[in-house]
Specification:
This protein has helices at about 10-20, 40-55, 70-80, 105-135, 145, 155-175, 200-210, 220-225, 265-275, 285-290; strands spanning about 1-5, 25-30, 55-60, 85-90, 135-140, 180-185, 235-240, 245. By secondary structure, the chain is α/β, with parallel strands linked by helices. α1 crosses α8 (about 220-225) and α4 packs parallel to α6 (about 155-175). It is globular. It starts with a strand and ends in a 6-residue tail after the last helix. Pfam families: adh_short.
Length: about 300
């Protein structure tokens, strides 16, 4: 198994639990700061040391998922080290949150490159190996920020919704080779969620609830999707929040109107929109949808 961004948080938890279950793991982490600036590669090696201390098998990798050559190098390391590659967890991520009218091209580009291009790069490199094997599992971390919405995260939300669409396309394109592709939208307290701004009592309450959600709670779902037990599951989006697992809906038409003469501006205004307005999606954010305390 190859887990990107596995030096800490959710990625490390998945790597540790996978090793406990008997998997050999490539622990990828470039040791970047929250906004993606490279600092130290020690995190990956620390995770490997912890895995080896409990009797597991792992190797550290410091390549950058946002670079195609980096993705190819980590996949090659997996095959060179363990002979095959059965599962990839695309978990690496950065944040550069700010309101859209203040967002620079560089901040948008950097986040999309790590999350969306990183998912493409690693999956694309892994697929060549998995096609030869005739099997494999691609597991991608999406987010309710993309699936539902959140303030001040246009870059992150766009990337994470793109990941969900990419995953579905991979599931469709690769099933002939026994390769499956699924998403997890995780709720957990980690280095990334620790950056959430707390500027109101409501936001403070939300953050305090999130602090109770351990990254280790995400691992069982990821391990299921990586395992032979999950061989029939592909093209799906799951959310995991503490002890809750959700199957998330994917966009489908919710209501339609038809007019035999076709439409013009007046009829759209007077007929189509009044008929459809009752089914509009509210302008809500993730916390509005997941508004109850986790169990």
């Amino acid at each position: 198994m190859l887990v990107t961004g596995a030096g800490g948080g959710i990625g490390r938890a998945i790597a540790m639990e996978a090793a406990k279950a008997g998997a050999s793991v490539v622990v990828n982490d470039i040791g970047a700061s929250l906004d993606g600036r490279r600092e130290s590669s020690a995190a990956a090696q620390d995770a490997v040391t912890a895995i080896e201390a409990m009797g597991g098998s792992a190797v550290a990798n410091g390549d950058d998922v946002s670079e195609p050559a980096g993705a190819q190098a980590m996949v090659k390391q997996a095959v060179d080290s363990f002979g095959r590659l059965d599962a990839v967890v695309n978990n690496a991520g950065i944040l550069r949150d700010c309101f859209f009218h203040k967002m620079s091209f560089e901040d948008f580009d950097a986040v999309v490159k790590v999350h969306l291009y990183g998912t493409f790069n690693v999956s694309r490199a892994a697929v060549d190996v998995m096609r030869e094997q005739g099997s494999g599992s691609l597991i991608h971390m999406t987010s309710t920020s993309g699936l539902i919405g959140n303030l001040a995260q246009a870059n992150y939300s766009a990337a994470k919704l793109g990941v969900a669409a990419l995953s579905k396309s991979l599931a469709l394109d690769l099933r002939r080779w026994g390769i499956r592709s699924n998403c997890i939208a995780p709720f957990a307290w980690s280095r990334m969620t620790s950056s959430i701004k707390v500027d109101s009592p409501e936001q403070e309450e939300r953050v305090n609830r999130m602090k109770e959600m351990s990254p280790e709670k995400i691992a069982p779902m990821a391990l299921y999707l990586a395992s032979d037990a999950g061989a029939e599951t592909t093209g799906q989006i799951f959310a995991v929040r503490n002890n809750e697992i959700f199957l998330v809906s994917q966009p489908r038409p919710v209501r339609s109107v038809q007019r035999s003469k076709g439409w013009d501006l007046d009829s759209v205004t007077s007929h189509a929109i009044p008929a459809l307005r009752g089914s509009y999606v509210p302008l809500d954010v993730s916390a509005d949808v997941f508004c109850w305390d986790p169990v």
